[in-house]
Amino acid sequence: MSQLFLAPEGIFPATKDAAGNPIKKKPATGFTIPGTIQGEGKMAGLPALFLRLSGCNLRCMWTLPDGNISICDTPHASFSTDFETLVSTEDAVRKILHNLGHISLLIVSGGEPLIQAEGLTELIKQLRAEKPDLMVALETNGTIYNRELADLVNFFSISPKLKNALPSLEKVKSAGVILPIEPENYKKLQINIRVLQQYIDLCKNSPGKDFQLKFVISSKAETSELKRQYLDQLSGWQRGDIVLMPLGSTPEELAQTRLMAMKTAIENGYRYSPRLQVTYFDGIAGV
Questions:
Q1: Rounded to whole angstroms, how far apart are CA atoms 117 and 103?
Q2: Phi, psi angle pair for 137, to nearest 5°
Q3: How far is Cα 247 from Cα 256, in angstroms, rounded to an integer?
Q4: Is pLDDT at 238 greater than 90 in this prediction?
Q5: Is residue 272 part of a domain?
Q6: Using an 8 Å Cβ cutoff, are 170 and 133 in contact?
Q7: What percent of the chain has pLDDT above 70?
Q8: Which pTM was predicted?
C-alpha cells in the first residue's frame, strides 16, 4: 500500500474527511465550501483543490529589497516537517474525491512533490480511475524528473531558483532556522538544466500538456541572471511560458516588489503573475 507524507494542511480547502463525513473546522478560506482558486501563474483564478506534500530538497531564503529575509512561503512543508502526517494513497484519494464537487483541477504542491514520486504516481492513477477528466497540475522546483509521474500530469508549474534564493549563514542566523546540510551545498542542487529541458520537451511532444517557468524576482537586475542561467540554455519555450512573480509572502513584502515585477514583465514580453492567495488571504496556510 502506497503512502504519502502530507504537510499540515494536506488536502485543502476541504469540508469532508476521507469517509465523506463533515469536518467540524471551517476551511481557512472562511468559506463553507471546499476548494479555492489558483493564485499564481497561467492558471490564476481557476477553481482548484490543493494537495500539499511534505519535504523539499531545497531551502529557499530570499533577501527583500529592505534587507529583511523572506523564507519559503510554505516553511512547514520544507524547512520543518515536524507536523507532517503519513496517509495512505487510498485515504488521500477518497478525501480528494469527496471534496472536488464541480472542481476539475487538482494542484499538487509542496515542498517538492517529486521527492514522493512513487506514492504520488499511484495516487494520480487511482484518481484517474474514478475521474478520467481530472486535470492535475504539478508545482515543482525543476530539479527532479520522473517520467512515469510526468506522463500523468497535465500542467507543470516549474519554479527555477535564482541566486537570491540560496541560503547563507547570514540568512540562516537572521531567520532563526536550521538546515540539514551546510548552506553552501544547496548551490549545486539548485540548477538542473537537463531536467528542465525534459519537462519542456515532454510538453512540446505531448498534446494536452503545458508548462510555465515561474521565476520569483526581487529586482529588475535578476532578469539578466535568469536569461543567462536558464533561458539561454533551454529550447522550446516561448515568452508567454516565462512568468515573473514578485517576491513576498505577505502583503507588506509584496508591496516592495510587485510593481517592479510587473514593469519588468512588460519590458521583456513575459507573463506577470499575481499572488492572489497573499492579496486576499494574507498568505495564510490552507487557502
A1: 24
A2: -110, 135
A3: 8
A4: yes
A5: no
A6: no
A7: 100
A8: 0.97
Domain that holds residue 23: 3-238
Residue with cell 515573473: 244
**Domain assignment of residue 260, yes or no:** no
Q: Cell 506522463 appears where?
A: 151
Phi, psi torsion values for 53, nearest 5 degrees: -90, 160
Q: Residue with C-alpha cell 481557512?
A: 28
- The pLDDT assigned to 80 comes to 80
What pLDDT band is residue 207 in, cutting at 50, 70 and 90? very high
**Chain-wide mean pLDDT for the chain?**
96
Q: Which CATH number does the domain housing residue 22 bear?
A: 3.20.20
In a domain, 193, yes or no: yes
Number of domains in the chain: 1
The residues, any chain, with a CB within 8 Å of residue 191's CB and separated by 6 or more, are 143, 160, 161, 229, 230
pLDDT at residue 239, rounded to an integer? 98
Confidence of residue 287 (pLDDT cuts 50, 70, 90): very high
**Does any domain span residue 262?**
no
Smallest CA-to-CA distance from 159 within 283, 267, 273, 252 is with: 273
- Residue holding cell 480511475? 129
Whether pLDDT at 157 is above 90: yes
The string of DSSP codes covering 174-202 is: HHT---SS-GGGGHHHH--HHHHHHHHHH
- Give the range among 20-24, 45-49, 177-181 with minimum mean pLDDT: 177-181
